[in-house]
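User: Design a sequence. Structure:
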């Protein structure tokens, strides 16, 4: 199978090259040239374990990796999850389910995609006899998930920039207490935007990028989106058939990567009726799906920080299909969005989506309400999804992080702080971080000195 860019000006690539490249050279995002039709196939996958199901699904796309190798890559990717079902589906009542996506190494859903991506990178390094240096910036969860995907892997090093003093103490510990000598947590004297701006300049320097075999980890990597399709399918296969007809996946949303994966699965012929895009107070996507207008706004930091976004980077993939797979039109709309910060969609099919938004004031209230009603504890991101469940639907809420990662907010909501044994252990390990000014030169010097 080959992968094309949403902007149509890049050479189509095979799976491994598209994964290694990340962002297409024309600035677009990779998508399969044609989507497989699973309508006659999905039901045969009922009863498979998580890793087996993932293998069957990814095999349809990763046609340049031998089946045995791929099976092993997938098996390794889910071995560090601490629940036998990997992504357990929990019934709260007959019309409310929670899909727990927080049993991976960093206790948030990004592990599902990042663990797979890490093992794909490792395989590529071994196969090509090359090393790879991963460079990224994080305001929290992505960096920790990336670090735990690559730590200790031969032929790789990972450098994660984060704003010093502006990520949660737990998130910082997840990045800095690994003890792995191929992990470099770079605490930048500046904001997340400063770190991101430096990163952009560094990746724009082609000579530096090629010399140091730099690769990015961001939510637009094709492998991440495909890995995320799998848990929708896994949950779908477990739903009773009468529940399927009224099912709505309710997804705490930031960059649109997670919910896009579910929607792609629907496009491949799995008859999921609909999705709810649940945002926090950074509600660009809520406004889009309720008004048809995409308007960029300032980020307001919130209690659900991994959903604090200004532009929804994965939205471009959805747009591509919305515009009838017309890459020229995608370029036009993306240029208009970049120039004016706003775009009004005329004919825009929103039929598969509903939307909700949740303010910071509501988050602790919702956590307390869900606890009272179902005896179930949700983290601040998942709380946004519980804002308003549709009574006529069967809701499958994606729980994107463990409540134990957010003890302060949970404490405020219910008067007690949850604990996780793995996070307790972290508190006793030494922090290893490298403080750097937010200057491109300081960062590139550091990377050159430590690259593998
Ligand atoms: C990243 C993240 C989200 C948002 O996911 P997107 O794919 O960006 O929409 C939601 N919740 C948590 C806990 C996250 O880490």
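Assistant: Done.
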């Amino acid at each position: 199978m080959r992968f094309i860019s949403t902007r149509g000006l890049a050479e189509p690539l095979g799976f491994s090259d598209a994964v290694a490249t990340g962002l297409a050279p024309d600035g677009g995002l990779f998508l399969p040239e044609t989507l497989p039709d699973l309508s006659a196939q999905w039901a045969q996958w009922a009863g498979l374990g998580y890793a087996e199901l993932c293998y069957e699904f990814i095999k349809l796309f990763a046609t340049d990796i031998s089946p045995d190798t791929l099976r092993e890559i997938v098996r390794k990717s889910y071995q560090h999850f601490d629940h036998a079902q990997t992504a357990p589906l929990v019934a709260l009542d007959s019309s409310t389910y929670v899909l727990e996506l927080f049993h991976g190494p960093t206790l948030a859903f990004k592990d599902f995609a990042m663990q797979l991506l890490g093992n794909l990178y490792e395989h590529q390094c071994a196969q090509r006899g090359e090393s790879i240096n991963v460079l990224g910036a994080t305001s929290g969860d992505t960096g920790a998930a990336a670090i735990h995907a690559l730590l200790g892997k031969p032929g790789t090093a990972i450098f994660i920039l984060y704003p010093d003093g502006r990520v949660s103490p737990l998130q910082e510990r997840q990045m800095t207490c690994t003890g792995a000598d191929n992990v470099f947590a770079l605490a930048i004297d500046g904001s997340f935007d400063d770190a991101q701006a430096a990163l952009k300049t560094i990746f724009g320097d082609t000579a530096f990028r090629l010399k140091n075999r730099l690769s990015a980890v961001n939510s637009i990597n094709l492998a991440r989106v495909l890995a995320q399709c799998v848990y929708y399918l896994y949950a779908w296969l477990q739903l009773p058939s009468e529940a399927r007809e009224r099912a709505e996946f309710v997804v705490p949303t930031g960059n649109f990567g997670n919910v896009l994966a579910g929607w792609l699965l629907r496009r491949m012929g799995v008859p999921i009726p609909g999705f709810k895009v649940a945002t926090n107070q950074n509600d660009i996507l809520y406004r889009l799906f309720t008004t048809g207008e995409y308007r960029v706004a300032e980020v307001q930091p919130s209690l659900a920080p991994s959903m604090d976004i200004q532009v929804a980077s994965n939205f471009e993939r959805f747009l591509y299909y919305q515009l009838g797979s017309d890459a020229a039109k995608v370029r036009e709309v993306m240029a208009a969005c970049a120039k004016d910060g706003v775009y009004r969609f005329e004919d825009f099919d929103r039929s598969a989506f509903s939307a909700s938004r949740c303010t910071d004031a509501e988050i602790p209230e919702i956590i307390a309400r869900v606890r009272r009603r179902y005896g179930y504890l949700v983290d601040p991101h998942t709380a946004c999804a519980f804002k308003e469940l549709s009574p006529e639907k069967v809701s499958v809420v994606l729980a994107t992080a463990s409540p134990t990662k957010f003890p302060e907010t949970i404490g405020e909501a219910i008067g007690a702080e949850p604990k996780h044994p793995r996070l307790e252990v972290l508190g006793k390990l030494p922090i290893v971080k490298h403080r750097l000014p937010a200057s491109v030169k300081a960062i590139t010097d550091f990377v050159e000195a430590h690259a593998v």
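The domain at 89-105+223-419 is CATH 3.40.50.1100 (Rossmann fold). The mean pLDDT is 94.
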